[in-house]
Design brief:
It contains 17 helices and 17 strands. A hairpin with a 3-residue loop joins β11 and β12. It folds into 4 domains: 176 residues, no CATH class; 89 residues, no CATH class; 193 residues, Ribonuclease H-like superfamily/Ribonuclease H (Nucleotidyltransferase, domain 5, 2-Layer Sandwich); 49 residues, no CATH class. The chain is α+β, with helices and mostly antiparallel strands.
């Protein structure tokens, strides 16, 4: 007899759940209702400082990748002080260094992304058309193969150029945005005039950022906000000191400001003269000006996932058009009905961000309503999918639509937003490995949730959210076999007896452990063909080692194994 060999694919190792760190800073915003004169003065100051900031950033890029002592920051700051002030110069040099480091991190990510794409295309080109070599399939048609060869040359050239920039330490930085720069060559399609585009371009390149200083009045000397009357004043650069209307070369705005969101925290800092950073930004589309206040917060230690053993958790599955949520208790059992929160991610950036915040607010409200101690999410990034998605995520119109859906899911923004908002709500965010959550949730929990749900229809996404929450507690995805929902005395531990972490207290032992040779506690029933008294006497005879007969599943009597029928506490024959 020939035994067929089946190839099984090894499962990937699941990473341990971890607690998402709390935000280390805060940022609030209010609108500046400027008079025409104030707006003109701020515009002149912003453009003047912006031109010198761009020159300093170009000088920093030319220096390249060097140590912090070799960036010549002192020389650059001295040159900027002559055309602005000492504090403005310090803010510009610090901003240049931060922008340079960000550009280098982005360039490294671009090199990794292009290298992955080039590798995938080369592997597929090595396989003839319509054939397959292992897990790599060649392109189905010669026309597609020819197009991919041309694309490979383009990507290889981009990869070589990116690697050269990375090795030399000279990244390309476009202050104002590469996308806005590209619209200059297609104004007819965007519906903008040259004057409107120029206004947006200049507004994106102004520099009005003042770093905070501890010990100075109101935490910032360059841009000061008086908490008593809400007045705003700023230091003018040396070439624009003739515009000053206050002593010491300062200009005081005619309008006043008032922060509403997190006002108490802001007041505590400015009254104690602790550092607060201010940014003045221009929105050329709406014709508005805004004042942002930001400060750093001390790091707060977060509880580990093991510390939340026994607490309720809200599992969340992020999808393209909705959030699926499910609440579980400390044993991994679902509580109540699954919850669905619509999530429309169309529109502008601010519109999408507002809708995402509204959805997270609904999640937090649902978690508080059920007394949850935290929220469990997937540690998603879609790095591989966004890098090689065109080669591995389907072809044609359907594959393109699917890739667009994956690219539109705001995984990073969702993680950052829910971490900050949950921290202020007193909830802990736990990130888990996203592997197999949808697959195992649909296999082990979809049917059970559908039977349990009374007001809404459970989906595979709800089952995935349940698996996410169970994984945050250290439980496995499978339900314990042999325990049904009808038995109320088993509900406390019906879902925990398989792969839970003993250190987290996930397993609850009630009675002797289950083995194939013991009868489950509380699940005995009368045997066929006898009263309870007859069955009791039969059990005594079986314990004494006598052979009896029982009725099998087919209805025929069969001998009962002496070793199997012996109770767990019965003595051995030798004793």
């Amino acid at each position: 007899m020939t035994r067929l060999k089946t190839r099984t694919r090894a499962l990937r190792t699941l990473a341990a759940p971890f607690t998402v760190a709390a935000p280390t800073g805060a940022r609030i915003r209010t609108r500046l209702r400027l008079s025409p004169q104030d707006a003109d003065v701020l515009w002149q100051v912003g453009r003047h400082l912006g031109s010198h900031y761009r020159a300093d950033l170009a000088a920093r890029v030319r220096i390249g990748t060097v140590s912090a002592k070799e960036t010549r920051r002192t020389e650059r700051k001295k040159a900027l002080t002559a055309v602005s002030s000492s504090r403005w110069a310090g803010a510009m040099t610090r901003r240049s260094e931060d922008q340079y480091q960000l550009a280098m991190r982005t360039l490294r990510a671009e090199v990794v992304s292009l290298a992955r794409t080039v590798k995938v295309i080369r592997n597929r080109l090595a396989v003839p058309c319509g054939q397959r070599a292992g897990r790599i399939s060649g392109y189905p048609t010669r026309s597609e193969r020819t197009a991919k060869q041309g694309r490979l040359h383009v990507l290889t050239a981009r990869l070589d150029a990116a690697r050269n920039r990375l090795e030399s330490g000279h990244p390309t930085i476009v202050l104002g945005g590469r996308r806005l720069l590209g619209t200059r060559h297609d104004l007819d399609h965007t519906g903008l005039t040259e004057h409107e585009w120029r206004r947006r371009w200049d507004a994106a390149r102004v520099f009005l950022t003042a770093d905070g200083e501890s010990g100075v009045p109101y935490g910032n000397y360059t841009i000061a906000v008086d908490p008593t009357d809400g007045s705003v004043s700023l230091v003018l650069p040396l070439p624009l000191r003739h515009l000053a209307n206050s002593p010491r070369g300062r200009y005081r705005l005619a309008c006043t400001v008032a922060f509403s969101h997190r006002r108490e925290e802001w007041l505590d800092r400015v009254t104690a003269n602790r550092a607060v950073r201010y940014d003045i930004t221009f929105d050329a589309r709406r014709g508005r000006q805004y004042l942002d206040a930001s400060w750093s917060t001390p790091a707060v230690p977060q509880p580990a996932p093991e510390d939340l053993a026994g607490e309720r958790l809200l599992g969340v599955d992020l999808n393209a058009n909705h959030l699926a949520a499910c609440v579980i208790d400390g044993h991994g059992n679902p509580i109540g009905n699954p919850h669905t929160i619509p999530l429309d991610l169309s529109g502008s950036t601010t519109t999408r961000d507002g809708r995402l915040r509204a959805a997270i607010t609904e999640l937090i409200r649902h978690a508080r309503q059920h007394g949850c101690a935290g929220i469990a999410i997937e540690n998603l990034a879609f790095t591989d999918a966004r890098t090689t998605g065109r080669e591995t995520m389907g072809r044609g119109r359907r594959g393109k639509a699917f890739r667009r859906t994956v690219a539109g899911i705001p995984t990073g923004r969702f993680r950052d937003r829910i971490a900050g908002m949950s921290h202020h709500a007193g909830l802990v965010v736990i990130a888990v490995d996203p592997a197999y959550t949808s697959r195992w949730g649909g296999r082990h929990w979809h049917a059970a949730l559908s039977r349990q749900t009374t007001h809404s229809r459970a989906t595979r996404h709800h089952a995935a959210s349940l698996v996410i929450a169970r994984r945050a507690h250290g439980h496995g995805a499978r339900r314990r076999p042999g325990v049904t929902r009808a038995r109320t005395e088993d509900r406390a531990g019906r879902a925990t007896g398989q792969t839970g972490s003993r250190a987290m207290g996930a397993r609850i032992a009630k009675g002797p452990p289950r083995t194939p040779r013991t009868t489950p506690m509380g699940k005995t029933r009368q045997r066929h063909g006898g009263t309870p008294a007859t069955q009791a006497s039969r059990t005594v005879r079986e314990a004494a080692g006598q052979h009896t007969s029982g009725i099998g599943e087919s209805g025929r009597r069969r001998p009962i194994n002496q070793e199997r029928s012996r109770p767990i506490d019965a003595p051995d024959a030798d004793s």
